Each structure stands twice: as C-alpha cells, then as structure tokens.
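Amino acids appear as letters; backbone shape is given numerically. Here is one record.
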Amino acid sequence: MADMTDVGAEGGDGIRTFPFPVDLSVLGVGMQVGQMGTGRTWHAADAPLERVHRIDFHIVMLFDEGPVRHMIDFAEYEANAGDVMWIRPGQVHRFSRTGDYRGTVLTMQPGFLPRATVEATGLYRYDLPPLLHPDADRLTALRSALVQLQREYEDTTTLPLSLHTAVLRHSLTAFLLRLAHLAASSAEAARQQGDTTFTLFRDAVEKGFATNHSVSAYADQLGYSRRTLVRAVRAATGLTPKGFIDKRVILEAKRLLAHTDMTIGRVGVAVGFPDAANFSKFFHQHTEVTPAAFRAEIR
C-alpha cells in the first residue's frame, strides 16, 4: 500500500481520510497490486496504518498466513490463510501489526473502472461482508486471477500505456467479478445461517420462556455463542436476544392478565417470576403500567 501520511484531511468526526496516491502506482494508473510482508514496499514506514483512518479507495487483501486481526467500521475481524478482506472507500479501519500481514494486496481508485463494471462487481455494496472465506476451488480461481492481474500490472514494456491500461481494466474486472460473486454468496449463506439460528432460538424461547430468561442458557443449549445469537436475532427482528425473550414474556403475561382470573402473583410465577414484586417491576418497565392497571384497562 502507498504512503498515506502526507495527504488527507480530517472528517467531521476527526478521522482522517486518505486519497489514492496515483503518483506512487506503476505508470500512474489507478490501481496497485503487490505483496505484503516484511521487507516489501507495500506501504510507507511512517503511514498511520495502526491508527484509525479512512481511505477513499478500495483495498483487497488475500492472506497467505494468519491469524491477522483487522478493525473495519469498529468491528474486529480475524483473517487466516486463504481468507480475503475487502475494505471499501469511506470505511473506518485500522491495521494491527503490519509485520503480521502476508499475502497479496490490491488497491484501486474509484473511477478507474467504467460505471457498468462498477455496478456489475458491486464495488459499493456496503451490505456485503468485508471478510470472505473462499473454498478451495474459489480460492484457486481468485489466486490465478490475481496473479494474472499482477503480471499485467508489472508488464510495462510490451504495450503502449493506453493498451496497458485497457488490459489492466479487463484483468481487474475478471478478478472483481469472481470476488463479487464470492461476497454475494457469502452474504446469502450468512443470511440462511442466521435464519436457521434465529428459528432455533425462537423455538427454544417458545418452549422455555416461562422458566428460562437467560440468553447465555439458550446459547449453551443451542451450541451458539452469544455473539452469534445477537447477530441472528437482530437481523431477523431488530431486537437483542434478551429483548426478544422479554417481549415473549410480556405477551404471555398480558394474555394471562386479560383472559384468566389468576392472581397477579400466579401470573408472575407462570412467566418465571416467583416474586410478585419483581414481576410487577418487570411488567411496568416494559409497558409503563402495572399488571393490575393493565388488567383493569383491558377489561
């Protein structure tokens, strides 16, 4: 990657944004591709890579080694050998120790590719995951396309500049089409997994909400981490897992208060609150009325 220290400006949030340094790319074209690693010139020694910053260009890193931790939009990602990380313009990010990065890095300037290619390759699909895990066949194809792109990038003698740039655009497009397909497929797989995770969680809550209000207990029961449950439930409902559980408990409490003559204490026990005072406090926090007031109003 190129030097990003001498140019750039702070945004409204105080985070500096650095432009693509065309003057440091081969023949000044709007892209660079090369190797990461100690002793290789893939970024300037004094570049602020380990501080939070933005860029106005794309970075694609294909890792040969790992693990490497990298922050993107304030979320931490861990990349391993064979993984691909795609950082888009405007995203806040931060490198970890740059000596740990091994593999191939591609940077490209907005505007280097025509609009039709930009749309076809989803260059600005910020909804797609930045960290990708290609299977063996897709990884082989990506590596092959990237090797060909690097070969064309470094071949500055066999073609005039206009043709050299045209060939680069075609080679870059071929690589990005493969990368975009991988990103879209990964997003769909994650969505389906999220749907499955949420469905299992929802069913578990339906069976156990009267006695179990613990997110950790459901996570252990289903074999998921709390973080996985949070992602899946939030994607499906916009709620946290705890919020989803509480909502189901309140619904059941309202049903019992409205349609039975059970005492408020008995209703509390039925939804997992042996202590009537705790139940009344919980109900009031979520509805802004007491159980007794709700029953009186509904009837």
